[in-house]
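The authors assume throughout that readers already know how a fold can be written as discrete tokens. In essence, backbone conformation is discretised, so a fold becomes a row of integers matching the chain in length. A single example would do more here than another paragraph of explanation. For illustration, here is how one protein appears when written out as sequence plus structure tokens:

…
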Amino acid sequence: RTHHNRYGMFREYQGAFPTYDPESSTHLGQLCDSHDLEQGEGEDDTYPRFGTSLSAIGDNYFKPFLNATVWRLMGWFYGGSNQKSIDDLNSLVHNVILAEDFNRMDLQDFVASRELKRLDDSTIFASDLWHMASVTIRLPCEKVKVPEERAPEFHVEGLHYRKLTEVIKSAFAETAAEEYNAMPYKLYWQPDDDATTERVFSEVYTADIMLEEHERIK
């Protein structure tokens, strides 16, 4: 159990204290947005730490397409439902046509089928971290009621996925992982020694379900 801070808050860990506290250097400016807050000496306003994935993207974020204009257009085509709605139309205007990197001259020789082939031939999923699989799904039939086991099947090929453990490893390899709370704890509030202690729930790492799971796998 930690000591009470000046707000009467304290933590209770199961077993041992963590070797690193990601919240130890957190200041008020990181928790709220206001120009009227007093800032202590030596505090840094530049809180956000962007992961290595952003720097790796760089100027080629629109790959495998030739430019950002085609990338935005293809993204709009694949997004939303099969029948484009008013929201889809608004998205086309505001997120594609009015985007700063949209250039209509890039569409002079645009051919949708060619861009689809470029996407199919891309090596974007060539990394060893990606796996390919196929799944079989049951298809519904409008106005026909049959048991699910008798419904026609459709075989979907070329499904790309990553294993959950690989995603977790990649997440902890990011710079932002320095701010993760990997060890859960119970958070309490007791304004003074005579007051009743109250349990406080905030983030997921203060929830009972994470405490129980942490005990199960550690």
Observations:
- The radius of gyration is 26 Å.
